[in-house]
Design goal:
Elements (H helix, E strand, L loop, with lengths): L1 H5 L5 H13 L3 H11 L5 H4 L7 E2 L4 E6 L8 E6 L2 H10 L19 H17 L9 H14 L4 H8 L4
Antiparallel strand pairs: 1-2, 2-3
Length: about 170
């Protein structure tokens, strides 16, 4: 039961409310949350490792390295960026180091905790406005992306590719 509670997904209305809030947030936290959602709710651990070498300027894509599971070598997972995602990324990038998701102009990568904190500010506002009835995490967004796309009829193979499941 506890595992099921942790794996819940936002409804379409809840996801729309979340998007409205993060789309209107011009702070670095808002850009981090937009990038996370618009890349399909990718694992934060993969996103925070992104560097300039992982960004295809002409292709408007990032290459994630999936090390989850029993892989001896990381699986390269190319994620095409929507224009809104690219704009979020551009607002975060700096010229003082290689990291793409950064709050230090590229010198260091942003931490999972900083992304989680940004999300919790949004979550608190959503709970206060009764848009949701409980807190959620970056993992909830990942599950939500998968659930909402599956409900729209996106084939399992496409979902597996987007979310780097069992590749």
């Amino acid at each position: 039961k506890a595992a099921k509670e942790r794996k819940w997904a936002l409804s379409e209305a809840q996801l729309a409310a979340y998007w409205r809030r993060i789309a209107a947030d011009e702070s670095p936290g808002g850009a981090l949350l937009r990038f996370h959602l618009l890349t399909g709710g990718q694992r934060i651990e993969q996103l925070i490792r992104l560097t300039d070498a992982d960004y295809g300027v002409d292709e408007k894509a990032v290459t994630l390295r999936d090390t989850k599971g029993r892989r001896k070598l990381a699986h390269e997972h190319i994620n095409q960026l929507l224009p809104e995602t690219d704009r979020a990324l551009e607002s975060l990038r700096g010229d003082e180091g290689p990291y793409l998701l950064t709050l230090t102009k590229g010198k260091t990568a942003v931490s999972y905790h900083k992304i989680w904190e940004a999300m919790q500010d949004v979550v608190a506002a959503m709970i206060k406005e009764k848009e949701i009835d409980r807190a959620f995490t970056p993992g909830t967004i990942r599950k939500t992306v998968e659930t909402r796309l599956a409900a729209k009829g996106v084939p399992d193979e496409v979902l597996a590719r987007l979310l780097s499941h069992g590749l």
